[in-house]
Specification:
Chain lengths: 359, 361
């Protein structure tokens, strides 16, 4: 079974939201759609659910036209950013609700609901009202209601975005197990966070300004983004983008730093290029001096925003370190990890070595 | 600009009830002039209550709020000269960007020349200069939030800037930019900033001092490095760092720490605990690595899961009831099924009754 989208166009108030999008979704796979706000992710899900009608395009499920079907006949389940539950019903009644509407006998409905509640870790709370639960628990109720329908298509629109940081971390891990059981369904999951998209997806779809700009195995896309734009979207912290050139066996960064062309880039002709370097592939303790403009500490890493002879750049250092603003730090470049893009932003040559940093 | 002190502050939202629940239990806090602070904790921990007590939106049930040593507890919010930015942008939709920024100054009858100067300065700082004549309601969410921030900054008489989860509506990449601007503002104006968030990354990136709260109490206040390297309680170890600190149940017996997966020598930084006390060994995921089977000091467990994040991968190992996560460089090989793990002795934090009993070096 597969769901086919062909040449989708959607304009809202004359602004294009989807621009000639064609995609195929297969049963038993989880697709993560990664894109920044307003990239068209939500519009895409709403169109599949039948909440939005495209100007142009075909939607075909299992060889049959899907577009003509109204929302309630599509058998699609959707989980939203906001925690949407029936406030007057208990947790159990919230989950049996869609089954009752489908005339599933009461005992069967309860049995199925309890199975799903166990799966999302809410068995102990089935008598409670949603409003008495924490945000994470409320979102689990919404997820259980979506799962209990055993829909062919399960859509999740940034379901973790409104949760506490720690809950996000926990649910992301649980999702891996929960979705593993959905072998009969197509699961489509949108997010703005690269890590989440890579961790959850069997297949990754990168969207930008209403268009699909790359699609494939999540790690393959991360390791070889086809354009600079894609590299920007899939790297957090952002990838360092540096103008430069190759000539006479030397690689030159922003006209300031020169070194012999690393092996993996030796096939490139002498020309101007744009070089990309992941923040984790710059390290402290090299020979390029830079001034710290801002030092950000995330849980287990320090991210240095720096200014140096090669312009501004970002360095990702494992561990928590204090670097005062304005202090000088010597930076090195892991030359084996340089990405080469054409001046038009197309990937010419990705690195072949794996990153030695990132801890 | 001012030093702000909370002296014996406590607060309950149900003062008429017998034995009320305290949203904020009795505490003392000092916010130094020009410092950057983050109030970090889960929903309901009391962080917003504390912020609102500083700004005067909430009058505390007990204790005093002092600005530069003067008791301001009974003063209203306007009298305190506090600027506050909320979770969602608060803008005047019928005004232009410029009128929005100018409004707080106009209300305070600041001379026009001075107003123009301040608005121009703040607009420049926030990269809003070319949008001054635009209608505020037509801007994107993050630009609207910059306007909210700008309205707090135009006044030169502000004692402190309080930010209540101000980046909730902002894209991750733009968060970088806004945080960078906040830091610049702190540097340039020396403005005391208190930033409320449930997101440890935001807190650690923004503040010099992090105040971790849970259940209406301050559990630890310190620099990001202190919280990361020496969490004083298992709660802080869990809450700070991503993934959380690993905890392995153990007891001290025959001169070694005994766990379900094997034993290790007692770290030299620990004073001898009483034999058979139940302890928890804490270790950060980035300090755990795979070891040769059966090697000395290695613990045996089973691989549960491997997660790929692009920049790194996380392997999950189970030792009976304890889950241990390893944060590994991309491409690191993970054994199948049985796995032996080890970690450097000097990275171990040891907890008795969930309180740190060693100073790891």
């Amino acid at each position: 079974m597969s769901l086919l989208m062909k040449n989708f166009d959607i304009r809202i108030d004359n602004v294009p939201h989807l621009n000639n999008v064609s995609l195929e979704f297969k049963r038993g796979k989880l697709y993560t759609i990664l894109g920044r706000t307003l990239s068209g992710k939500t519009t895409l899900l709403r169109t599949i659910a039948g909440l939005q009608t495209p100007e142009k395009g075909e939607l075909i499920l299992h060889g049959k036209d899907f577009m003509g079907l109204p929302v309630w006949k599509r058998g699609v389940a959707m989980v939203y950013q906001q925690f949407i539950n029936y406030p007057h019903l208990s947790v159990l009644a919230n989950v049996t609700f869609p089954l009752k509407r489908a005339h599933v006998p009461n005992s069967e409905a309860k049995k199925r609901a309890r199975e799903v509640l166990a799966k999302v870790g809410l068995s102990q709370l089935e008598k409670r009202r949603p409003r008495t639960l924490s945000g994470g628990q409320q979102q689990r109720v919404a997820l259980a209601r979506a799962l209990v329908k055993r829909s062919d298509i399960l859509l999740l629109d940034e379901p973790l975005v409104n949760l506490d940081y720690k809950l996000r971390e926990q649910l992301r891990e649980e999702f891996l197990n929960i979705f593993q059981g959905q072998n009969d369904a197509i699961v489509i999951y949108t997010t703005t966070e690269p890590g989440e998209a890579i961790q959850l997806g069997h297949e990754l779809i990168v969207m930008d300004e209403g268009a699909v700009i790359q699609q494939g195995d999540p790690l393959a896309v991360f390791n070889a983004p086809s354009t600079i734009r894609c590299a920007e979207i899939i790297n957090d912290p952002p990838m360092n983008i540096l103008q430069g050139s190759i000539g006479g066996g030397e690689l030159n960064l922003r006209g300031k730093v020169t070194f012999p062309v690393p092996d993996h880039l030796k096939g490139l002709s002498d020309d101007a290029y744009i070089f990309g370097l992941q923040a984790a592939d710059l390290y402290t303790g090299g020979d390029i001096p830079g001034k710290v403009e801002l030092s950000e500490i995330s849980g287990s890493q320090t991210i240095l925003h720096m200014q140096g002879s090669i312009g501004s750049f970002i360095v990702y250092v494992p561990g928590v370190h204090h670097h005062p603003i304005g202090s000088t730090v010597e930076i090195g470049v892991d030359k084996k990890r340089i990405y080469a893009f054409s001046v038009d932003g197309e990937l010419m040559c990705p690195p072949t070595a794996t990153s030695g940093q990132g801890r | 600009m001012a030093k702000i002190e909370l002296s014996n502050i406590a607060h309950t939202y149900e003062p008429t009830v017998e034995n009320p629940v305290y949203a904020l239990k009795k505490l003392n806090m000092v916010w130094e002039d020009g410092g950057t602070y983050a109030l970090l904790g889960p929903s309901g921990c009391g962080k917003t209550t504390m912020l609102n007590i500083i700004s005067g939106l909430v009058r505390p049930s007990h204790g005093q709020v002092l600005f530069d040593g003067v008791n301001f507890t009974e003063y209203s919010t306007p009298a305190r000269n506090i600027a506050q930015v909320f979770q969602f942008p608060v803008i005047y939709t019928l005004m232009t960007v410029e009128e929005n920024l100018d409004f707080p100054l106009k209300c305070r009858r600041v001379p026009e020349k001075e107003r123009k100067k301040r608005v121009r300065e703040v607009a420049e700082l926030l990269n809003l200069s070319d949008k001054l004549k635009r209608s505020a309601r037509k801007l994107a969410a993050d630009e609207k939030q910059l306007i909210s921030l700008g309205r707090g900054l135009v006044r030169s008489d502000v004692s402190a800037l309080l930010l209540d989860e101000p980046l909730t509506v902002i894209d991750p990449q733009l968060k970088f930019e806004i945080r960078r601007k906040l830091k610049t503002i702190n540097e340039r104006y020396g403005l005391t900033m208190v930033y409320v968030t449930h997101d440890q990354n935001e807190a650690m990136s923004f503040a010099d001092t992090i105040v971790v709260m849970n259940n209406g109490e301050v559990v630890q206040a310190g620099t990001p490095q202190e919280l990361y390297e020496k969490p004083e309680t298992t709660y802080v170890g869990y809450f700070i760092g991503s993934p959380s600190m690993n905890f392995i149940k153990c007891n001290f017996d025959q001169g070694r720490l005994q766990t379900a997966g094997g034993s290790i020598p007692l770290p030299s930084s620990v004073c001898l605990p009483e034999e058979k006390t139940t302890l928890k060994l804490g270790i950060r995921p980035r300090f755990v690595s795979f070891a040769d089977p059966g090697s000395d000091g290695a613990l045996k467990g089973r691989i549960e899961m491997v997660q790929e994040f692009g920049n790194y991968r996380i392997a999950t190992v189970r030792i009976e009831e304890d889950i241990i996560r390893l944060k590994l460089p991309p491409g690191t090989e993970v054994p199948a099924d049985d796995a032996w793990i080890s970690f450097p002795e000097n990275k171990i934090c040891l907890y008795a009754n969930d309180v740190l009993v060693n100073g790891n070096r």
